[in-house]
Amino acid sequence: MISKIVKTMERAVLASCEVIRPFAMGSRSLGDVSVKADETLLTAVDKMSEDVGKVILRDAFPDIPFIGEEGGQSGANARYEFWYDPLDGTAPFVIGTPTSTVICALYDNIECVLKAVVIAEPAYQRVWSAIRGQGSYFRVADIPKQKRVVWPGDLGRGTGVFCDFTQGFKRDKGVRQIFSDHQALVLTTQLAANTRLLLLGSNGAHQAYVADGRDKVAGGITTAMGGPWDAAGALLVMEAGGAAKAFSMDKSILSERNPLNPKSYDILVYGNSPQTTETLTDYLKQAILEAVE
Fold first, then answer.
1. Which residues take part in binding Mg(2+) (predicted)?
2. Any binding-site annotation on 108?
């Protein structure tokens, strides 16, 4: 059952990629770009991509509710629900950087965990997927799926760590600023001093690249979660042999949560090993304390 659903999820994200690609390559004009309540950007392409994915998923599985980042929600309460981010990384997309992704996740409302995730890159048609308990996989075009494992090295000055920051970002439709600009500054300073800091602007890409086992890519921290889809790649990382920790945050106080339940938290830390994840968590905690002081 889940495998069948994932095949449809792959079809949906690839259809969204086909919508996005002409705009990403500059052959079609983006038109107006607006700013949402959470300070992130929105284009007409976001909505076009979501509509295409929604039709494919709802036609195949009408009993599974669909929850899209751009407001495309349908279906009554059920055991499973689809989460859909039709264009993760709109800011880099707008300036022509080919690092944006499309994210589709399947969430289990009874177990309260991610059941499956598919992340695709419009620019290169690369697709990463994982089903809980069945490993992490990669494919491109017609090449068969290949199992992926995380890079086996140690965290250090020469290893890459991804971070996602949006200045002034606020969750819950612009109500809660989880991570202050000062805290972000302290954390980036710490990471830049101890690792090779990478900022691609797409949580989907960050998490997929760690799961993919890219050379000297060790982990990442997500602090700007527009919705649970922004942490869905945690399943990719964990199924590739990596580790993750998650936290809700209230007035600079962190409370640990289950990383496979993105509905329950605000910040995700992930790495190629438990040790990497713990070290990145320490950097996060130090940044919060120093910024408060």
1. 69, 85, 87-88, 230
2. no
Ligand-binding annotation for 266, yes or no, is no
Binding residue per annotation — 88?
A: yes
Which pTM value belongs to this model?
0.92
Q: Is the pLDDT of residue 24 over 50?
A: yes
Q: In whole angstroms, give the CA distance from residue 107 to residue 97.
A: 30
Q: Is a pLDDT exceeding 50 seen at residue 37?
A: no
Ordered by where they begin, the domains of the chain are 2-148 (3.30.540.10), 160-292 (3.40.190.80)
In this structure, the number of other CB atoms found within 10 A of the CB of residue 127 comes to 23
What whole-number distance in Å separates Cα of residue 106 and Cα of residue 3?
Answer: 11
pLDDT tens-digit series, residues 123-140: 889 999 999 999 999 999
Supply φ then ψ for residue 156, to 5 degrees: -175, -170
Sequence-separated (6 or more) residues with CB below 8 Å from residue 20? 45, 49, 87, 93, 100, 102, 122
Was 121 annotated as part of a binding site?
no
